[in-house]
Request: fold
Amino acid sequence: PQRAPVPCASPSAPRSSMHFILLSALCSVSVAVLLKLAPRWRLDMPQLVMWNYLAAGTLCWFLLSPPLDSLAQRGTPWWALTGLALVMPSLFLVLAACVRVAGIVRTDVAQRLSLLLSLVAAFTLFGEQASTLKLLGLALGLAAIAGIVVRPDRGGPSPAGGGNALGLLLVVWAGFALVDVMLKLIAQSGTASIASLQVVFVAAFLLMLGWQLVRHWRGLVEFNGRNLAGGLLLGVLNFGNILFYVWAHQALPDSPAVVFAAMNIGVVVLGTLVGVFAFGEKTGRWNRLAIVLAVVAIALIALAP
Reply:
């Protein structure tokens, strides 16, 4: 998974309405669904993540035409780009484990509420002013995090690996915030966001390829067409989340806060519907309250002046 940056300069996209936001949210939730189904289909997650970055890098190159010349300027934060190439595939593997153990509903909420830590970073590192609405959204969001990590149905049997859910949810929460902060640091350096993603996609693929070759050499895994197909599909969905989000900002250039809020709230709502009705995931009363608080918090933070 990766955050879709708001493009500073990107190719023209078809002018349209907010259906781009819906498509972006659908792609995001579809990624979670594929991660949920991967163990049932006996897919190897590290291979899926590897092929995902091959697909994402290829699509980024042909559809967004990243301005790679911006990488040649002095001050390009190669340390941050290298860090992202390590953090993003690692976080993808954690996300897959979290979806399996904690479910789509709680994982999607934790992922979207990572904006709380990003907001704290904006206040402390980037000099953003803390308005009353943003502070209120931050408080409600922290309450939502407390509610979402509560295991539903405490009286029932614990799911396999249920004891790891709390730790995985917190890693997802903090990990996506770390990605946000690193992307903002890269953007502040003057490096084009799309160019930085292109580099990270390629570097992440090469790093994952090296790891998979070692696993194959040690006899731990075999390359096969099933994992290739699953990984390429994952990459298409993953990149689709970014592409439609970029196009949504281009279609509504004067309403970035609306795009941001609608996207994140859409993922929370769609993820909840899919998790509960398609996979029968249980949510306790604290989880349900947390979902409502998360939606309100995202709206307050995004729409605050």
